[in-house]
Structure formats: structure tokens, C-alpha cells
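Problem 3 from the worked examples.
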Amino acid sequence: MEIEKKIISAVAAGIKQLYGQEVPESTIQLQTTKKEFEGHLTLVVFPFLKVSKKKPEDTAQEIGNYLKENISDIIADFNVIKGFLNLTISSACWIDLLNSIHKQEKFGFTPVTEQSPLVMIEYSSPNTNKPLHLGHVRNNLLGWALAQIMEANGNKVVKTNIVNDRGIHICKSMLAWLKYGNGATPESTGIKGDHLIGDYYVAFDKHYKEQIKELMAQGMSEEEAKNEAPLIKEAREMLVKWENNDPEIRALWKKMNDWVYAGFDVTYKALGVSFDKIYYESDTYLEGKDKVMEGLEKGFFFKKEDGSVWADLTKEGLDEKLLLRSDGTSVYMTQDIGTAKLRFQDYPINKMIYVVGNEQNYHFQVLSILLDKLGFDWGKSLVHFSYGMVELPNGKMKSREGTVVDADDLVAEMIATAKRTSEDKINKLTDISEEEANEIARIVGLGALKYFILKVDARKNMLFNPAESIDFNGNTGPFIQYTYARIRSILRKAAEADLTIPAELPHNTELSEKEISLVQNLANFALIVKQAGNDYNPGCIANYCYELVKEYNQFYHDFSILREEDQNKKIFRLALSANVGKIIKLGMSLLGIEVPERM
């Protein structure tokens, strides 16, 4: 904040003049004055007592006097509480600060340049044997928000997805479709492609369990029955055929995967997320095998008697990690190495962020070491953005048993709930078409879902409560959206009354503490954006927006805006409202949340 820089510079000059010694500006710390004390910014003077050789109170008093004499345009007053110098900043300074914020369309954002580092963010990572579910929703929303935040911090960003489109689980869906599908297609059934294939994954599990039960009744142990069941044997045979490029199996695989991709695209569009580049495991696993064999030749890895290839990470305090099975088939680690190789060929990556659940913490610890050994510059510094499980009030989800909460169903339910909940508010808008009412319900429903998920610390497991998320009071998306719509309404009324905000607000307006506090809060947005980028934490943006909106609503309740008789105050409050609206919109956009023009 410009005000702080000027004060810090003046404090350094004051200490030199008062006590004859220079202190580095980095040691001069200002903080927001605590609410119970008078003032806006507080200087802690304890670090300067060695220089002043005086009591804390006397040192603070002397520095306060110096500042009031030398930067009287900034410091209106001060008071001393022990070793704390509380500074009251002049109204003119806060007006200047608001003028500065007003001029910057994307206040708080750092522009991306040709020289900006390139950050790649991987998120989503779906399997092509089932639709996206609530867990994927948290993943996609975190990945998208993280991408917006990294870009707002001046990074080039590439959003990427790795699709798990091969393996035994894909063959299970394919086999079940062949056996029980009777040629069903998304067109013939009217069922979305990813849901259709998901149904056959569930069907496989149902029939497989029946076969296990029958074999156990014939005297087999559960383990034997699981391995000897005809369905699992057929699925394994299908996987071998796939790996051997059997044309019939490959054609079926491509057809069914294409149905799934068409379904995924609809869900991604509804969630408002997209990707710059999609990688497929069917392409990357062979690249991974090549890279592992290269590592074996260079002595990074070793081969066991059965032909399997391993990495020995005992020196790093970890264990031995399997990279290729004895039959030459790959594991997830192999695929991730292959994907890294292709990505490094495609982009000059400076930082790689993987958005993956916390059950994979160990996997990424190992991957970081392996990529570093294999010569990837960003291997050592890769970031595993680890997040917790999402649960619903009625318990966990299991995809094999078909008890998953599908992303599509969740989105539809949120929009329907938003429509029901906001009906009384929307009905107050006299000139609203059904189309606009539906659009508002979509924005509010998705805003509720996204905000509720993103406000929580990503590392924690969370309970998603749809009813709670859509409340128009409290720390929710709709509460913030409603305040934005209220501000837009004020600005429309101002325009109708021919009131305009000048490029420069006049300095001769005396501001209330509430108005100053709001300007100070707006200025903090730039620090919050930086913090969110440094900590990979969308939650701090969400909670900043909530605190800003809460403070604005108190201001709106206590002060007249359009009915204010003092013209300067009226225009200032209008400018303040407009900029609160702008920062809400910017903050929410970082979370992938839209804000309605009216509600």
C-alpha cells in the first residue's frame, strides 16, 4: 500500500535524524491498528530501543512527533500505548488510495508478460468408466481456482488434464456393455455417455459379486473365487488384447471412450472449467516405460530376478518403489513419468502443480524424487496440491456400488434449490423474463456450490451440505452475490439520476471510520491475492470476499448513499460502493464464480 511505503520511508528518516543511526526499511513493520484502539496503522517501536536508548513510550512519542511535523499530509494524529505508536491517517490519503484503486480495472492483479514463469496445473484426472462425481467437483473447482490465482500473480498458466482411459477398470465397463448392453448407445437410450458407461461398470460389479458368491458356495475361498470368477478372467483377457492392439477391442474402446468424453464436456461446461491440453494415459504409459528403461540403463533403477524394475529410495528415507511389473506392464508411477516427459517436450515448465487427493501424498513424494533423478528441472520443486475427501451428510460415496453423487445431478439439484430459495427475491424484480430468472438461478446455484467447497481449507476433509450452502445469510456464495447485485442496483439508480463518479475524487471530504475501514479493506485485496498464490490457498480469497461484504453491508445499513445531501460525500460513497463491487467481482472470478447484475 502506497501510504505504508511513505510512512516507512519517513520513519527511517526520522530515526536517522532523532538518533543518528540508519535502520533498514525492512525492519520497520506497520500493522493494522487493533479495533479497540484509535488509529489506522500501528508502528511497533521495540526494535528501535537499542538505537534510541530510551523507554518505549518516549521513543514512540518522539517518532510520532517527527512524523506529524514532517508528513502532516499523511498523519492527522497519533497516540502512544506503551511501545505501540498508533497513527491516524488523514482522510485525503484514503481518498487518494480509493482514486488509485478506482483507476485500476484489475486492482491487485500482476500482469503476465513474455518473461513470466510458466506454471502447469494438472486437475480433474477422470477415469473413462464412470461419470464425474462430487470428489471430482472439488478437484475441478480447486484446480480452476488455483489456475486463476496463479495467473493473477503474474504467471503464465497451462491448465492440463490426464485422462485414465486404459486398464482393467475400463475393460470391466466394456465387457459388461458387450454382455448386457444389447447395443445401447447414448442416442438410443437418451442417457448421457459417461452415465451410460458408468451403469455398465456398476453392472459388472453386480454380476462379478454373484459369480464370487456361487464359487464360494462350491467350496472356494473368497480370494480364489475373486481370481477364478469367469468375468474377471474375461476382463483380464480383454486387457491383454487391448495392450496387443487387437483392432476389434481397440475400436470398441474408442467408441465407448468417445461417448464418455462427450459426456464429460457437458459436465465441465456446466462447472465452468476447461483445459488447455489433455493427455491420455493410453499415450503416456509407453513413454513412461521408455523413460524407466532409460533410468535402468543409467543405473538409477534396478531389476529383480522376476524381471520387475524398481527404484531404491531407502537413501531418501523411503522404500523400494515398483516401476514396471515382471510382465512388463506399467503402474501409475510409470504413467506419471511418461506424462511428465511429454509435458516437458510440449512446454517450458517452471513449476508443476498436481491437484490430487491426499491419499496420494506418498505417491507424489516418490514422483518428485524420480523426476529429479531423470533430469526434469522442476521435479524437485513439483507441488502436490493435496486436498481432503468430500462427504455428504448421509455418508461416503462408492462408485462400484452406484451410490455416487454424480456431478451432473449435483449441479442440477443446486440450480433447482437456488430457484426455489430465491423465488421471493427474483419475484420482486418486476420486469424479469423466465429466461433471466433461470440464468440467475444457475449463477446462484453454482455460486453456492463453488463457494461452499472453496472457502474450506483444501487440506481438510469436508462435509458438503447443499441446503446450508444456498443460505442467503452467513458465509455463503449467495450472500456475497446478493450484495454485489445490491451495489449494481445502487449504481443503476445513480446513473438514472445523472450521477457520475469523476476520475479524481476531491480531497476535501471528511470520512467516517467505517468508510476509511472499507478503503483499507479494499487495498488489502492485493495482499490477499499474493498470499493465495504463495500458499496455494483459494480459501483465503473466499473468506476475504465474505469479510469485505459483511463490512460493506454494515456501512450500507448505517449510511445513506443516494439520499446523502452533501454532494461530495454522496459521490465518495458511490465510488466506494462501485469499487467494493469491482473487488467482489474480481475476487469471485478467481474462484470461478459469476456474480449476477441483479437478484
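Problem 4, a separate protein:
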Amino acid sequence: MNETTTSEVKQFDPLDMRNYRIEKLPKRQKSNIEKWLATAGIPLSILAFIIVGFFIHLPFLDGILYDDLVSESARKAFTKIGNDAFARSNHLMLAIFLAGIILWITEAIPNYLTSLILIISLVLTGVLSEKEAYAQLGHPVMWLNIMSFVLASMLVTTGVAKRFALWFILRFGKNAGSIFISFIVINTILSAFISATTAKAAILLPIFMVIAAIYGARGSEGKNNFGRSIVLQNLLNINLGAGAFVTGSGANLLAAALIGGAIGQTIFFADWMAAMFPIMVGLMFIGYILAMKVYFPLSKEERMPQIEGGMERLQMEYKKLGKLSFQEIKSVVIFVLILGFWATDKLHGISATAVAFVGAIVALLPRIGVVKWNDVDIPWHLMLFSAGAYTLGSGFAVTDLPSISVNAFFDHLGIKDETPFWLIYVLLTGVMTFSALLFQSKTMRTMIFVPIAIGVAGRFGYEIVSLALPVAFMIEHVYVLPFNSKPAALLYETDQYSYSDAFKYGITMMIISWFLIILAGQTWFKFLGITPLGVF
């Protein structure tokens, strides 16, 4: 038994990126609090569903009028089924949403199973038709993620990713600080081209996991501050980098399309980048300082490579790779072409999903391609998790529950049409920012809160861009809890950090980000003409 264990340990090569395939990530041990939440999650979710769905009748949901509705889907449903049935659908939608939130937060059952339960619940309660509910698995962003995972697997299988990681650590790994700053640069560059944060996470995960192993981070009982910092900073930077560009994620593109449609103008790449690039890069460096100086300071030992043989071993491993193979060259060419087509979509009009489709097909072609299907590393549990989130978004669109709730909230507080712009600005950006703690999909949050911002701007007589665009700028702050986004769920499985590590670091960055967007609204956004002069 001991001999077998020793042999298995010896066979583990921290420089072999195949050890960091998604399905090989270690199973995390839950803390006592997490175990308690998991035990309570199922009964609490059932109780919430029954009480809200069948015993509580909220007045603002019972008295819905056609003119109160914003969503066209909701207006069609209202006309088709009538006031009473529409109110019943809203109560059931709210009940399903609350039950799902409880299951996702407590992790009483796997997230993908919660998503499957949500989908069938929306069907059985009649909130959504089967066609609408099941169709979300075919959402274009879902296919973009799947094809991007094929491309990421291509880089790992051919050895390009390992070659880059070794070159990277030899070039920039003279000290720990330079490694973290280099990842800021890499994340920013990739974000301009890759419209899928999950794909970026899949591409970068093997690289920073190898580097973490080199610096002594082993996960589970072998956690150290280097491992915590490199994974959590990359999670932060993957999302902040996406927020710097309108092409950074599908949710950004959706937000720009919604706002552009409302104002009759296009939200251009340059407009978004001018507003958010300096803010997001600044936040990345703030995150670096907080991690290195406050939350995860490195000991003297953690600042130097701890792998046997040190940098000499890495140099030897790099030399073993020899010259670039033909397969590696092909994978680099395919990947660069994909990035090029993604970056020039305005010129050719081909969607990012279609481009990824073609790239993945070429990569998988027999004799021509560079990767086999069995070598492709696709986290299907995350895909199902996403399908549930998108289905919830469809449910919200059909019931118009978010805008109905917001209008009721404003009316309850007695907020009048002459309310100062700054108060509405602070409220809407804050709701968008902190909604990431509860919602599991950026696309869903975009479909809910950007139309709300557009509607609120119209209600109070302000320019749509002045409220809707700053709200859209807060889409990518989804790094606090593991269920807040697919990259967060993926990187949590590395077992390099705890729930509390992610929360204390992430919530601090989220609060700082909100205050920074408020400050920008009074300064930088005024200069760019986004927010009106003389309002604050």
C-alpha cells in the first residue's frame, strides 16, 4: 500500500500539464460550515419554493398592468394568458429563482443538477414552454464556449501551452512579483480578442497551475499564499480584462446591442475601451497590491521556485522540447487566425461563435487537424450549469419579474421623477455590481438589469447612455463566490484556495470597483460625455 502510494507520488510530474486537465482537478474537502449549508440547502429550497409559490401573494405581482411591462415577450404572454395567470407565473418564477439561489449557494447538490432541476421546474410550472426552456442549451454563447475549449485543448495536447509556460517562467520568473504582473499583461491582451472568459480560464489554467506547483503550491493540504494569489488574481484579471473591451465577453456585446438598439446608435469598440480600459487595468494593479500586501503576502520561501533543481530543472525541461514541431506550428497558426478573425469582426461580419466553430472543426479534422476528440477537455457540468442560468434569464424575460419588482421598489420608497441623477446612478450601478453575488450568468444579469437601466432612464428623463452604459460596465464583476461565473466555478476546483479566501479578496475588490465607477461617473465619464455635466 505504502509502496504504491510512494510510486504514484513519484510519477506525478508538476510540469506535466495533463495533470491539470479539468476532470483531473482534485476533489475539494468541504469545511464544517459548507457541510452544514449543504445539509440545510435542500429542505430550505423546497420550503422557499412552496411558501413563495403557493402561500404568499405579493400585491405588486397581483396588480400587473400591460403598460407596466417592458419585455416584448412578457407583453405577448400577458395578452395570451391574461392578468391572473400572468401573476401566477410571476409568483412561480420568483419561487423557482429563490429555490435555485439557495441550492447554488449551499451546494447541497452539484450546480449542474440544480440547473437541470430549474429547467424542468420552469417547464412543469408552465412558466416556459418546453421549446423555450430546452433551447438554451443551444445558446450561441454555449457553442462559443464549447468550441473555445476545443481550441484550448489543442494548445495543451500539442505542447504549445507547456512550451509557453516554461518560456514564460524562465523569462519572467526571476521573482514572484514579476510573474503576477506578467499575468496582468497577458489577461489584458487576451481579453481584447477572446469573447469567452471561460475559454481564457481554460487556456491559462494549466499555465498558472504549473507555475503554482513550481512555487510549492500543491492544493488541498499543501495550499500556500502563492497558490491562493496566482489563482485568485487570475480569476480577477480574467474578468476585469473582459470588462475593458466590448468584445471581452458575449454579455458585453449583448449589453452594447441592447443600448445601441434603445438609442439608435452603435456602441463602438473604441467607445467602450476609452471608458473602461484605464479603469480595469487600474483595478488589476489594485488587486495585485491587495493580494501581495494584505490578503496573501508571500513568505521568503514562497518568493523563490521550490521545485527540485530550481530554475536549472526548468531550463533542462525547456531544452527537452527542442524546436517547434509541425503540429505545434499548426496549432499556433489556427489559434492566431481565430484571434485575428475575432478581432476584425466589424470588417467581415462573421460572429465569434461561427469563427470558433470553423477553428475547432479544422483542429479536429483527421490528418489535417492537431487534436483528437478524446483529448478535448470540455467541462460539461459547467455547460449544463450555464444552460440553467440562461433558462432562468428566459423565464425573467417572459414574466418581466425584474422590471416589475424595480418599479414596485421605486414606488414603495416614494422616489419621484425629480430624483437627483447621482442617487439613481449610485443605486443602479450598485444593484448591478452586487447582483453578481446572487446571479449565475452574466448574460442573465445583462438581460435583466440593462433593460431596467434603460427603463429607469426613460422614467426619470435622463439620457439612456448615462445610466445604461455604466450599468453595463459592471457586468464582469463575477469573482467573489464560486457559483458567480463559469471561470469562478472552474478555478475553485483547483483547490488552491478556500471559500473565505475568495470572498474576502473578491468582496473587497467588488466594493472598490463600485466606488471607482461612482468616481468615474463624476469625472472621467463626464469628460467622455457619458454622464451629464453639472449633475453631481
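Solution to problem 4. Residues 341 and 348 are 8 Å apart (CA to CA). The radius of gyration is 24 Å.
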